[in-house]
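hi! just following up on the protien thing from before. the input was this:
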Amino acid sequence: GIFEKTIAGAVNTQYSLLLEHGVVIFRAKPASSPYLNLTGPTLATNTWSHLVGTFDGANLRLYVNATLAGTVAASTLASGAGISLIGRLGAGFYPFQGSLDEVAVFGSALSAERVAAHYQGGVSLRVVLGTTTPGPLTSTITASSPEADIDPSNNSLTLNSTVQ
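and the predicted 3d structure came back as:
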C-alpha cells in the first residue's frame, strides 16, 4: 500500500492508493456499498511516478504523471475516526516495496490544473541568456507558483554575470 485512510485502523474502510502487481489502484469505500476500485495503468519499474487520487463528492479520479487515468462515479464515502498510513494498508497489510516521496493529503479535491502544477513542481528551472554583447548582465527570476515553494519569502534568484 502507498497510502490508506482507515476507520479504526481496518483495511478497506475509507480510501487508499496502492499497487497490485504493478497496477496502480485508487480504492474508496462508499458509505452504503462495497468498495470501488479505480484501476490505472501498470507502472514502469525503477522509475518515479506521480500518483494522485481525488474525490469531489461525486467522482473518484486517478491521475498518473498529471494525466487523468480514470474516473468513476461515487457516492458519499464512509466516514469515521481512524489512522492514516503511509507505506502500508490498514492492519499492517501490503507493505509498500519501493520508495515514496512527498506524500500529501489535502482537505478538498485538487483540480486537474492543481494536479499538473504539483507534478510540474518537481521540474528543474533552466535559464538561458540570449545575449553576446560584452558587459555586465543582471537578471532576477521569481517563482510565482505556490507549488514551487510554500515559503514565498525566498523565491527570487538574482544572477550577476559578465558577458565577455
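The chain has two domains: 3-120, 124-164.
The CA atoms of residues 61 and 108 lie 13 Å apart.
cheers
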